[in-house]
Automatic annotation (TrEMBL):
It is found in: Membrane. One of its GO terms (biological process) is bone mineralization. The gene is Ifitm5. The keyword Transmembrane applies. The lineage of its organism: Eukaryota, Metazoa, Chordata, Craniata, Vertebrata. It comes from the Eukaryota. Residues 1-20 have a biased composition (Basic and acidic residues). The chain crosses the membrane at residues 34-56, 82-106. This is IFM5 protein. It comes from Glareola pratincola (Collared pratincole). Keywords: Membrane, Transmembrane, Transmembrane helix. Pfam families: CD225. GO terms for cellular component: plasma membrane.
Amino acid sequence: MDTSYPREDYLPAPSHKRDPSPAALVPPPPRDHLVWSIFNTIYMNFCCLGFVALAFSVKARDRKVSGDVEAARRFSSKARCYNVLATAGSVVLPLLLAALVITGVIHLSKLAQESVGFFTYQFSPSDEEDN
């Protein structure tokens, strides 16, 4: 069973002179972002965006293997967008949540210090009340 796929990193053979032939003008095949999608699906599956990216990556790889380069390029672009969204959502949202918790704790500690000062002022006996 042959499970080999075309390599993603397409490097044309170096030539010392410019070759205007049509074979030299062929763009490299699109990337399918499959590894990034698998990583996002397993570790950073924010709102199931990693799974959606994995689906588009598999579609891009299938289209690339079948020879439909334009459809592979469209699916690859969608997979990249969903991978970026999944990664950003999984990294930015916990950082934002941590920042909100830290600022909330700081605000509550200042509020507690001010309220302690207020209650000690209100309920402490003064010299005028003792007489």
